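Lab channel / #folding
Pinned by the channel admin:
"Please post every new chain as: sequence first, then the structure tokens as a reply. Keep commentary short and put observations after the output so the thread stays searchable."

First post following the new format, from NK:
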Amino acid sequence: MTLVLAILLALFVLPTDWGIAAVAAATVWEVAQTVGGMWWSTRRRAQVGAEALAGESARVVRRCDPLGTVSVRGELWRARCEGGAETGELVRIRGLDGLTLLVERDDGAAPRPRGPRA
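Reply from TO:
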């Protein structure tokens, strides 16, 4: 957009020397924005899919003994917790087996209170 504006100013408003300078400056700006945007978007790999859930916390929705259901990022997942976990407890996701999350109790976190929110 900046380059288009600079070209229009160079053609219709500015004297020749200033027009060349405006187009050159706008070109440098556009190139810098493009290169900066490409660098910014490729800083790290995209983290998507079930594999990206490892290490996240989840809340037990249906008791895991050893199979149950957990809620993570607003989604319900089937889960396996060998140590067992009660409804409302927080668990840590350690892996994935097919479409079943492998979870373990998160002893460092207290269970979330049940009931309506205040």
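NK: Confidence is low (pLDDT under 50) at residues 111-115.
TO: also worth noting, The first helix runs from residue 2 to 12.
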